[in-house]
Write a structure and sequence with these properties.
The protein is of the alpha/beta class and about 260 residues long. Helices cover about 45% and strands about 15% of the residues. The protein has 11 helices and 8 strands. The longest helix has 17 residues.
Length: about 260
Amino acid sequence: MTCLSVNVNKVAVLRNSRGGSDPDVVRAAMTCLRAGAHGITVHPRPDQRHIRADDVFALSELTRQHGVEFNIEGNPFAPPREGYPGLLQLCGQTRPAQVTLVPDGDGQLTSDHGFDFARDGERLRPLIAELKRYGCRVSLFVDAGNPDIAQAAVLGADRVELYTGPYAEAFANGNVEQAPVLFVTAARRAQAAGLGVNAGHDLSQANLYHFLSHVPDVLEVSIGHALIGEALYDGLETTIIEYLKLITQADSPAS
């Protein structure tokens, strides 16, 4: 079954907007896990706009206690600075199950493109090797239209995460049948190269079933923004349960 990893960044955004410790990121993550989520994702950024280093350590402990996956996302090229020790150091100290490398700049509002392997591949290679020495599975954030998607395997990555923003946009604009076509092709090309396939960005209750029922053998979806927004109306536990129902329906042979 496709795993659901809940990105709790937005909980930290709300907390940081006021200061203090409420809402509690760890409590929110615990609620997700108790409702059946398969893992927790965070994307700490150097400007500490949401998830901070102390959150990473606390969530690492929580996921370890619950025996579930902890997925840390981030730009491996961003240098350390005050309050942010750097992605590789955070991973070395917490040893997450998965690290998803993303090429986002410091001032970027949200991740909106994948790696250019021709430009970044040789810089990524030793970093991937170091993360694997820590015992981490490594996934690379990629555009579905990247013709070099199989290069991720050559660089040593275990998986790719398909950037699904364009899928969600096409789906929202009514191009329902065409929306997943590029992603089906990308998933098959990645899998033919021996890569596992994850997916994330702008997936929601509205479009997740359609995506998973078309794109083959997606191992994990990482969902945060839409899920936390939906939880404001329906509650966090209820929202997680609804996502898990969609995943189960899409994974069912009868779907």
